[in-house]
């Protein structure tokens, strides 16, 4: 009926508007134009001037999808210059001329040769012209017109992006937005209702609804639960013609999924779980699994398990598995069937993520009871300690008990236990054990200097099941018995100055002892010792030592340790009395006093000994040469070639001859200062100097000492003799010859030796020592 109505309207339009309309004015204008055209033909030429258009002109329409057998009539072209005498010819040019459109040249009727589709091309632009049949000249200028394809409702609405998918949270309220869909219609939206679309829902009610104009889909049913139904399929229809009867329609499908929310708490499938485990299971072993089911999905279904604090929960722990949503019970401490046979505790399951919108539904957690039964396993004996430590002396006799170990069977059978020592091939075995009592005893002699301690492995075995045994380590420390005394590290030889002060350290003694022995105790019988870091120092107890009285001290040093039994040794320290300067430097000692420095190496000592041997050889050779000489002791001045004999013709004036040269100065230029000092020493007050030096009472002792020396030596002492042809009488010291020393006056005064200079300092000290000794005797 719609198509018939459109066809009827088109006929009306064609009769009233498309056909040329003849008016009087247009006829007149056509006649005048025709006369002018004939005049031009007569004169044989064509003027160039504007010709007024004489078309009867309108827009043409052609109906699309024409299904008739004859060509479809479009319209008619007509000019006022056309008098109906067939002198005017109509031509047509432009889009589709010849293939789609054609014109009758004499009448101007336009026809469509085939069916047209507005959706393919909505209009065509053509050009028309009226031409004189005889001359072929255009009667009017070429004009352009449009043939518009008139739309009919031949296209249904289409969903270009279907099928669609959408999702919303479960339990969404009514009216919640789901998605929006849009359909398109290829018909002309400006003509009629062919392109006016209306949406409706064909399948999916009462869960969802659709807006007829916008195509927005919304929730229509409250409390939609994903756990009840998760997927919904909704069919939407789009119909043109405003949804009226006869309109074309298209459909699409929307798959709507309900997204999960945490609206369900976890629930255990049963209230009590029974688990079992062996008592020998190591810590960390899996005891069993428990599981709480949650109807939600994803993160909302994750369950966290925990043990409710209680009596039996301290022995176990639980691990939550996010993949399987199970809780694995793990052993936390070691079990003992004999101590406890069963444990009971509660496990709680709760959601990790909570949705506060649904907390009013109740607590999102659940609890269940877990009972764990411990299974008995036969175990080896258990020692009372993890390890044992014992001590014994190294002189402990064989067979003496050092200590004991204890082990027992904790199983229900309480089997007897037997003990043994695990023998080692690579070490000595000094101990044995009683198989029943577990006592350890010595079977070989001990020596602490070889082994300070022994590690013994004791094995305890069950009598009822010899395959079950346990081991323990026994550490036996060997205590030391004081066997070796401490000793001095070296043979010590040192010296002490005659003018040493009280408390002066003269030597340090080092003690050698074994590390296992206590620190030594020092005892000196003659001198005083002090102890520091196993080093003892020999110090003086008095301030004056006299070399003539005693030139050597042998100090016995007793070294004792603090061990048990007490051990000691005695060492000798040789101390020589020597003459020293005021600053403590050594001047001279008795005879061959050789000071060996402490701590010299073996090479240095050998070098010193070699030098001493060379000196002794030279001395022996020199003595042998002297014995072969047959000359007199006092040779003539011409034959005397010794270094200390000076020959000159004039007789010397003795020491009073101060103008003469000093032979010592000539030989040693460094002795100038000493000579100068000697020349300056002149006694002004003889009595005072004599009293300051020495007493005449010592002359007898001096004579006895010199006489003793002369008796010991068979030959005169030439070592430091200076011979002159005539000894001066004016010398203060008079004759210095040792040959005539025995005839000295008994009351000779030797105290003036102090003024003779440094060379006589030693001799002056000897007389001063005798003088002091006599004074002490007098006071006593």
TrEMBL record:
SMART domains: CA
GO biological process: adherens junction organization; calcium-dependent cell-cell adhesion via plasma membrane cell adhesion molecules; cell migration; cell morphogenesis; cell-cell adhesion mediated by cadherin; cell-cell junction assembly; homophilic cell adhesion via plasma membrane adhesion molecules; morphogenesis of an epithelium
Database matches in PROSITE patterns: CADHERIN_1 (PS00232), CADHERIN_2 (PS50268)
SUPFAM superfamilies: Cadherin-like
Signal sequence, renumbered to the chain: 1-20
Domain Cadherin: 79-159, 160-268, 269-383, 384-488, 531-596
Gene3D superfamilies: Cadherins (2.60.40.60), TCF3-CBD (Catenin binding domain) (4.10.900.10)
Residue ranges crossing the lipid bilayer per the database entry: 604-625
Name of this chain's protein: Cadherin-12
Lineage: Eukaryota, Metazoa, Chordata, Craniata, Vertebrata
